[in-house]
User: Fold DUF3016 domain-containing protein from Shewanella sediminis.
Amino acid sequence: MKLTYILFAGVLTSTAVIAADETVENPVTEQGVVKIEWQDPKSFRDVKAVGDIQSRYEKRTFDTLTKNLNREASKTLKSEQKLEMLVTDLDLAGDVRPTFGATMNDIRLVEELYPPRITFSYKILEGDKVIMAGDEKLTDMGFMQRVGRASDKPMRYESKMLTDWLKKTVEPKL
Assistant:
């Protein structure tokens, strides 16, 4: 009888873990003047979780990038303007490496050899009117020289790359 309860508890626990890892097909994050649709994150080059549930890691990553981009976009865009993006690929800085049992989790090794990359299309809206649109494929080969290594902000390399794009590409054309 006791074994039945233990087995039943194990089934409930494993079902809860599987349910917790449900992913949204094309998640959308929105904050302030920025709205981003993340198209088919399963096919992204590298948004691999290290020590976390994959769906939770993706959500936190997408929310952080949206929040950081909004911080800069709200300074660049006029009050009635909005930035909408469709991200088709994302490759976070670094590479996930197995630890072969040395630790419980894999590690993300951040070296110059593994730069951040992002591919997306965007449009700047003023009301319902599109005033600017385009497609971008960004790679920051010198990411380790531009962002202080002492910085511990999440997604700092990717956020810096998007901020630079906003200042160099979007701001001059507005």
Summary: The CA atoms of residues 93 and 115 lie 5 Å apart. The helical segments are 2-20, 54-76, 143-146, 156-173. Residues 25-173 form one domain. The radius of gyration is 19 Å.
